[in-house]
Design a protein that fits this description.
two-stranded antiparallel sheet; mainly alpha; 4% strand; 156 residues
Amino acid sequence: MLIRFHEYRTPIAAAALSFIWGCLAGATASTQAAMGKIDIQYAVAIAAIPIMIGAVVALSRSLWAEKLLSHRLRQEQKALDTHCIVSMTDRDSRLTYVNNTLLELTGYRVNELIGQPASTLYFDGEVKKFEAIRAHVQSGRTWSGETRVRCKDGTA
């Protein structure tokens, strides 16, 4: 999932305008303070308030976007874990993650698979298919399909 720049246009614009407003207000207020018309504390406050408003707008949008992304990722993970078996490997093709669906279907426990070669889950004649899938995914493309997986008891 991508978060596109246009989703941030409004808060970025609001923050920029608040910053500009703060700079202009600050310049005017500092001139007034230099002339003795207002205290320097008021000049600082006049400059700081719009800048802080812009920062709050930008920060709140950023936190909202992060929360939304986190929610979407949890939903995607839940969908994957519910409908697919998922395994991840390191550069040496050793398993680093397996989801509960894979464990339930194969009869393995997580500690029996993590750190093991991914070939543990494949029959001897299908290891080459796993290697082809891995090469496909490493090239940046997605792969979807079916493979036979070896269960703990040796069945498919």
